[in-house]
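Hey all, quick one. A colleague (J.T.) asked me to put the s-citryldethia Coenzyme A job into the tracker so the inputs and the structure tokens live in one place instead of scattered across chat threads. No bug as far as I know, just bookkeeping. Sequence used:
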Amino acid sequence: MADKKAKLTIGEISTEFDILSGTLGPNVIDIAPLSKMNYFTYDPGFMATAACESKITFIDGDKGTLLYRGYPIGQLAAESNFMEVCYLLLKGELPKNEEYQEFCRTITRHSMVHEQIRYFYNGFRRDAHPMAIMVGVVGALSAFYHDTLDIKNPEHRASSAIRLIAKMPTIAAMCYKYSIGQPFMPPQNSMSYAENFLHMMFATPTEETVPNPILVRALDRIFTLHADHEQNASTSTVRLAGSTGANPFVCISAGIAALWGPAHGGANEAALNMLQEIGDVSQIGKYIARAKDPKDTFRLMGFGHRVYKNYDPRAKVMRETCHEVLDAVGAHDNPLFKIAMALEKIALEDEYFVQRKLYPNVDFYSGITLSAIGIPPNMFTVIFALARTIGWVAHWNEMISSPYRLGRPRQLYTGSPERAFLSINERK
Ligand code: SDX
């Protein structure tokens, strides 16, 4: 892949670096020889750093492009489904019919959790944030599968991948049931992935519910939109944890922890809370002013993106899905939706946002959509984690199944030079 060279001259020393090109996107400079020059690169926030090579997902922030294994997100959201997308992200190709049926059967048959898992929930307060429970319970899965934790064994990796994809909806729904004091509902093998999740969330032993097919389809699409996003903060966390040889369950737990932050996956819950705080279209100007005030830490949640400096292609599909769901539940005059539409319009015309290329991202409409489906705000990031599990697992597996090195960044040290210890009586 090295077809060109870059040359760096510092003082008398010149060094050449390979320029590597991929299938799409910017070329990269292989800076390995830099360590021989006793220099490090310096790139806080990794604004211009490719931490790895990957074949899974490609994003072009300027064109608003998102490809899963080469397929545009808009086509997958419109014509595929989440189980197909899981197969695609994990194996690299869309499944043929028999492969698809077998994959769905396998996922379905791993959706139950060990009975002991129930007892973990009892240790949490009923009002614990469900993301705190997810971090704990998903990591604890590694205490149940000692038989398949050899990460060098492809069959063990495949088995862990299936278990994680299959069990996340069950564990997530159990978080919600625990928080409202209702009994856990077991998965139903007769149901599709998204339908089963809604069943485990909202059915009770006393009353069967038939999930609304429009909401099932909408949720399946939301899972697809959130499935992967190249080297975002949580996926990079999973890769870094995985590079130590840690088992996949705790690596995914680390990813869940990173996703929880409001600058990342926690933005959907924060965006809905922000809309509720704004409360009325007449208050939008006050919040726009706060978002623009450099002295105010307030930011418009659901706006802006590190990579998309044009629109987020997922936001476009999410906005359409939002309309569909609000129509289906008869909530099109939802006041939060009206505030969201007005906020989007005002922000997109405001010079501050236009100049900084701050557009609504996937989280801006997902909160309203999930809320209209009946999912409480503190479960929004749990849904994001449920969907992103396939992305995390695909990247973990891609890294572990080819040569990789322990991730160990260096630093620019600006602390104290070496100094001698002083006993407490000698200190001035
Ligand atoms: C996700 O990486 C991924 O792919 C993530 C994700 C995925 O699928 O994995 O896409 C999911 O995390 C989406 C992003 C969700 N986060 C939010 O909606 C939170 C609100 N957004 C911001 O926190 C912010 O936009 C970030 C964190 C998303 C991106 O920030 P950057 O790239 O570090 O940019 P920045 O903070 O340097 O901002 C550049 C300028 C600054 O102003 P100036 O210093 O130039 O004057 O834009 C301003 C910022 O103050 N700015 C905002 C803003 N976002 C950036 N001002 C007001 N409101 C905002 N939302």
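Adding what we noticed when we looked at it: The chain has a mean pLDDT of 95. Strands lie at 2-10, 13-20, 28-29, 57-60, 65-68, 71-72.
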